[in-house]
Each structure stands twice: as structure tokens, then as C-alpha cells.
Design brief:
five-stranded mixed barrel; alpha+beta; six-stranded antiparallel sheet; homodimer
């Protein structure tokens, strides 16, 4: 199976656990059998592999998500990077060209596209395989997944099938309706359009060429920022006559708010949390090193990260966005391809962060113009390079880098550093990267 | 007025803002006219000074509170230190001997004793002055303040006066009753015993000598740990025949729980907090650098410090103690005589703290056997001494101290340091102090 996972989103609705660099699909919320937690992305990836061990998975995403994806899925994962945000049609066109021109997937192969962030169970992945098989049959140019609605949502478009069969033609599409209209359509048998579909690769390439003049993936990539923003539904799906819908019954949830997300959690808390017996329907997700004690609460979600603390009635939490816009966040923690960091203290002329480098990984070789830096090695072993001079480092070592000096550090075992940045103008932009000779 | 302020308590009920070194009287909760916040201790001290600019105020307290008291009231404040905890009678006896033998207060002077932590208004301080004047009259050996009860509390002892006069003899004392009994006594005119009383100095010295064989303050101090724990009420008050009670009507509140404490706050929040319009009767006290966002909550207190985060229904919060006992806290922040510190990160072989030194202050000259330390100067100017060598330091400087090296730092302007401790055995006990030559 060739599958394109669309990984987008900004995730403001899940503040403080999501931020500019961590969309909701990267939050580790789901308990695996070995007691660890995995993210929606990791869960989706793992289930696809389980359903089809030979699946060719490509993640279509923005540049700012690359580090987090590599951190969570390893360096080997295939990523098709959108140079900027241009809605789903350009994204699918680019990823399809990538499959064809870079990966060598033939034009008659079927491709499945699905978003990375719905919360689903195993039957969903079986449905993806059926979707691909249906697309291969060549009965239609496009095969959509139609999700049987559980409530008259105003968030989704609807697909009205011609019949109640497992696979059916499409009688019409309905753009996001109000709840009353949605109710009527559901009575007529309408299904949710969850943005999951399959097609023969060449079909989508042709559709791309109809709208965009380009020759091959690299050309399309080069002119990506000049493309119009247009959704897949609007550009292709709703215009296509040769379209089928395959109905899907099983659980399919958008975990876009704290209310829906906590419903999908395996237990009442993640992280350091204590609840007294009088707490009812309370969920705590705590990514801080501090304990959270909850007493006498009902229907409340408490969520804490280095970016802030949310304490909210679950229903009320869906109105969070304007408050998060007001907060205008600095990135206080992030997963990088080489490990992770979190801000411990931010002051006028200093910034103290804790850096964790994964074994075998190193940060870029870089320098700063306007700040000095110190590394205090808290644990682990590795090798540092400062202005071309390499040295072994281990727990207890202290390294100082004057402004202008080029530096990097490579972890042999997991390496934890306390980094103190000192200077009058500390900002993320003050960074020049170099090749390590 | 000679006044002994009893400053005790461990303050577990106000976790996470109080801890082993910060009892509730040190939490800054009350807004002053200039928009700053002050603690119960600071407020009490300021009001006494306002009521009597010449008041001779002595704080009777335990060793572990000295730093915080100096931090909040300055170095000039008079403290009578109890070497260990021995209930109120030994504490009052020691402080009375201190007044007589160290301060030279004569035996016929009146002394007022009161706890530092009730929440009171200006009329309370006028009442203290009246209490002292009444004690001076010599009509009784002891004059107690009898607080008019506002509800049948089970927390206080009760005093049954002989009459309804402003000053009256005492007909009997009642130890903490249950609510039903309390109700009956209140109907008979009983008053709360809030542990506020006045006496002629010599009277209390005589009472001390009756129970303890000692000659003078220093002798009493030396044998303090061998003294029996016994309360003032039990040892003296309830046995005294020549005793009067002076009734006090005005507000008098024990802010011992989050529920009562938030009632006394001047606004709904202290620190970085945002509440949506659907929050009702919500209080936030946030000592972290992170924003706290509250949505759709009713009757909830949220309190956050480097020790942890409490989210509790206000009524339920009074049952906090067993949970705090379970948490078994490390001290994550503290006010010291020279400034303050907070823990930014604690790992197996490193501890990162942020130190703030007040202008003109310095920490002890000291060394550690089992850890190296780094100071990165985040802001301010000062002078450091490392192994006898003095040097000027300012923002941006980095100093490293190997295990064994003696070091201190003096702040000229307010000085902020990031201190990284590195070693396999990091503990507070690993500290040797030296005189600075």
C-alpha cells in the first residue's frame, strides 16, 4: 500500500501541550502495551505497519514538523516537505509527484491519502487497505471513505451516497452544514467526509497538470510558494464524476479539543498527578516535573507543560483559542531530530535550557554572534567540537563558548546538558550553521 | 509596648505555597497601597509599628525561620530563637527571659504575646495596646484577649467571662469542644481564646522559675531541648486565678486553609493568571513563571509554586494534609537572609538553581566536598571570592568552582546567578562554612 499521511495543524486548541512546533499529533497520550506513551503520529504509523508491513508510508508535512517527526519515528521515515502552507490540493499533488518521481511508484499504483490525527482503532486500517483495493479495481477515479456519523457535526463535509451498499456511487457533496441541516442529511443517509481517499497515482498527476504547469516533482517543489491555496475537496473531489464512496462504521474521532481528547485517554492521568477520591471525570496531563494535586473537582481537565497550565471545565475548554492567541507563546520545549530541549529559566540577559541529545545524534555545528554559552554536562558521554578542536566530554564537564566560536556536541550515550546562554540580545535567529569539516 | 510575636507552624495545609522552610505567614498574599504584595508577617509587623511606632517587637521562632524573617523584615529585627520546638509555654518563658536579660526590659513592664498569623484589621492593634494598658493596671496577673466568635469553631479553646463587660473576670476555660458544645457555650457568652495575652514581665519569669530551674536567659537557652513540651494554656492560663479577659469584636481570622485564605485576598489572582468570564469564585495564586489559564470553574483554588500545583474545590482543600505528607517534599524554593533561590532542574547527577542575591548581601563563604559548581552571572554586579582570590563579576561572567574550593559572592547591585551543581552525591548537607579572611 502506498499511503500519504497528511500531517498539518497548529494545535492551539490543545494548549499548553501543543504549540507552534508541536501540533496535537505529537503529544504522547496513548499507552502502549509496554507502558510507554505514544503520540497520535506514532500510533497511526505503528498501526499502518501492523496492517501492512510493506506499506510505503510518506508523510506530507511542513518544514517546522520535520524535527519532531524524525524524533518520534526515527531518521528513516520518508517525508515530503511542503516549503510553505498551501492547503490540501497542492500538498497531495506534491506528495503524489514525490511518490512518482522520487520513489518511482508507477502511475497505475493506487495511493491512499489520510490525515494523521483522527483517533481510530484497528478496523480503520483494514478499511484503508480495502480502500486501496477498491481504487485498484479501476471502477472509479476516486474512492472516498465515508464515515458513518455519530452526531450531526458542523465540522465536517458530508457525502450523500447513491445506495446503502458498502461501496456506492455519490449522489452529492454537502459542505459543512449547520447542525439542523446535518441532521436532515444524516436521515437521508449522508456520511462524514473525513478527508480519506484513494486514487490511481496517474489520475492525481493528471489533475495536478490540469491546474499547474510543471514538469516533475522538483519543478513543482520549486514553484510551490506561487501555487494557489485550494482544498482537495474543492479542486478535485466535488467535481469528479467517476467517484465512489466506501462506508466505514468503526470509531473515528477528531481529538481536536481537550474534551474529546481526554475521552480517548487510557486512564485519568499522565505524568505526576494525585487525585483525591472526590474527583469525578477529571483528567490530568502533566509534562512538568512538579506534582499536581487535584481535590474535589468535577469534569475538569488539568494540563501542564513548560508553556503554561490549563485548568478548565471540559466543555468550556473548546473555547480556548482566543486566550491562547492572547498569550503569544515563546517555544518553551521542543522535540528535535537529535533529541529535545526545554527552557528552565528566561531572564533579560540569560536563557537557561536543558538539552537532551539522543545516543548517536548531534546538533548542528553552529555559532552565535551576540551570546556566550556554557554547557554543563549533567549526564552521559559524548564528543564536543569547539572551533575545530574535538574533545571527549562526560558528566561533570563544563565547556564555555564565547560569542562567535563554532560548536557542536555529539552524544555517545544519552547526553544531558544544562546550557546557559548569556548576552544582551538572546534570540533564536542569532545562529549561523556550518559544515563540520 | 513590648510585644512577642510567636512565629511557628509548618504550613502543610497551604501546600504548595508553604513548605518546610516557608510557613504560611511568609507567603506574600496581601496587596499594599503601592501595589506590592506582603506576607502576614510583614503585614502584622507594619501594623504594629503603625499603631505604636515605639513598639519593642521580638519575634519568637525556630531556627529554620530566621532566614525568611530577615529576608522579609530586614536584618535589624529582634529574634528570640528557640533551639528546638517545645510548645508555647517554654517559648514564651524563653522570650520573656530574653526581654529581661538581653533587652533589659524591667520586671514591672507589661508584655503582650500574640501569634503572627491571624488575619486582622487595624482595630486589632488598638486592642493590643488596650490589652497592654490593662495588664499595666495590675488588676490581674494575666489579661487575655477574648475574641467574639463568628461560628461554633472546633479549632479554638473558649473563655467563659463572668460578665459582658469590656473587661471581665473569667468564670471558666473550655478546651476545644465539638461544634454542638461550642454552640451551647457561645449561647452562654463564651469567647474564643486566640492565644493573645498580656502580663507583667516579672509574673511570667516567676511562672517559668516555678517549673524550670534556671538562672537567666542563656542558661534557659542552653537547657531548652531538655524542657517539657507544654502549652501556655495548660501550664499557666487555666490555672491562674488572677485572670481577666478583654473582649474583642473586630475581624479575626485564622487563614489556615486555602478556603479561608482566599477569602482574605484583595483580588481573584496573584501572579500570571487568566480567567474566562465563566469562572465564579475562583482564586489563583501563581508563583511560577508560567501562565495559568482557568476556564469554566466554580469555587476552585489554583495554587502553584516550584513545589507543585494544587487544583482544588475550596471546601475540599481543607483535607489536604495527608496528601502533602505523602508527597514528602524537597525544598524547591526558599527565602534566605541574603536573597532567595529556586530549583530549576533536579537530575541524578546535577542540580540547577537560580540564585538572587540582594544588594549588599552575600552568601556564606563555603565549600563542598562532593560537587563542582558553576556560576553563570545572569544579571547585576558584585564581587566573588574563590579560594581567597577576590574578583569583580558582572552579567555574562562564568565562574567554576571545583569540589573543595572555598567560594562566596557578594552582590553590589541585585545579582542573579544560574548555579549548576555537578556531582554524584549532591545534597544540602555537603557544605562546610568558613570565615572570610
Amino acid at each position: 500500500m502506498n499511503i500519504i499521511l497528511l500531517s498539518g495543524g497548529s494545535g492551539k486548541r490543545l494548549w499548553p501541550l501543543s504549540n507552534d512546533v508541536r501540533s496535537k499529533q505529537f503529544i504522547k497520550l496513548f499507552k502502549t502495551e509496554d507502558g510507554q506513551y505514544e503520540s497520535m503520529l506514532q500510533r497511526m504509523y505503528r498501526y499502518i505497519r501492523k496492517a501492512d508491513p510493506y506499506a510505503n508510508i510518506t508523510i506530507a508535512t511542513a518544514k517546522r514538523q520535520i524535527s519532531a517527526i524524525h524524533n518520534q519515528l526515527g531518521e528513516g521515515v520518508d517525508i515530503c516537505v511542503e516549503p510553505c502552507r498551501r492547503d490540501t490540493f497542492p500538498a497531495v499533488a506534491l506528495a503524489t509527484a514525490y511518490l512518482h518521481d522520487v520513489q518511482g511508484v508507477p502511475g497505475d499504483a493506487a495511493v491512499v491519502v489520510c490525515p494523521v490525527d483522527p483517533f481510530v482503532k484497528e478496523d480503520y486500517f483494514e478499511a484503508l487497505i480495502k480502500l486501496e483495493q477498491q481504487a485498484k479495481k479501476g471502477e472509479a477515479n476516486l474512492v472516498l471513505m465515508g464515515i458513518e456519523p455519530t452526531y450531526p457535526s458542523e465540522k465536517y463535509g458530508y457525502i450523500l451516497p447513491k445506495s446503502k451498499n458498502a461501496v456506492s456511487g455519490v449522489s452529492s457533496f454537502i459542505e459543512k452544514p449547520d447542525a439542523k441541516t446535518a441532521k436532515q442529511y444524516i436521515r437521508q443517509g449522508a456520511l462524514w467526509n473525513g478527508g480519506v481517499f484513494a486514487y490511481p497515482l496517474q489520475y492525481m498527476l493528471d489533475k495536478a497538470h490540469e491546474r499547474i504547469r510543471f514538469c516533475g516533482y522538483y519543478d513543482l517543489l520549486g514553484q510551490y510558494s506561487a501555487l494557489d491555496s485550494i482544498s482537495m475537496d474543492y479542486a478535485v473531489v466535488e467535481k469528479e464524476k467517476q467517484v465512489q464512496v466506501m462506508r466505514f462504521h468503526g470509531p473515528w474521532k477528531d481529538l481536536g479539543t481537550w474534551n474529546t481528547l481526554t475521552e480517548a485517554m487510557d486512564g485519568p492521568d499522565i505524568g505526576n498527578a494525585i487525585m483525591d477520591k472526590t474527583c469525578q471525570n477529571v483528567h490530568v496531563i502533566n509534562e512538568l516535573d512538579l506534582p499536581i494535586l487535584c481535590m474535589g473537582l468535577n469534569d475538569v481537565v488539568v494540563s501542564a507543560s513548560p508553556n503554561g497550565i490549563l485548568v478548565s471545565d471540559k466543555t468550556q475548554s473548546s473555547y480556548i483559542k482566543p486566550f491562547v492567541d492572547r498569550l503569544g507563546q515563546q517555544t518553551m520545549f521542543a522535540e528535535k531530530s537529535w533529541g529535545s530541549f526545554r527552557v528552565l529559566d528566561a531572564d533579560a540577559e540569560s536563557l537557561t535550557i536543558k538539552v537532551t541529545l539522543n545516543p548517536g545524534h548531534r546538533m548542528n555545528y553552529h555559532s552565535h554572534k551576540y551570546r556566550d554559552e556554557i554547557w554543563a554536562v549533567a549526564s552521559g558521554t559524548g564528543r564536543a567540537v569547539i572551533d575545530g578542536r574535538e574533545q571527549a566530554v562526560r558528566a561533570g564537564d563544563v565547556l564555555t563558548m564565547q560569542a562567535g566560536s563554532r560548536h557542536t556536541i555529539l552524544a555517545e550515550s544519552e547526553l544531558k546538558l544544562i546550557e546557559v546562554q548569556l548576552g544582551k540580545e538572546i534570540c533564536v535567529q542569532d545562529k549561523e550553521k556550518f559544515d563540520l569539516e
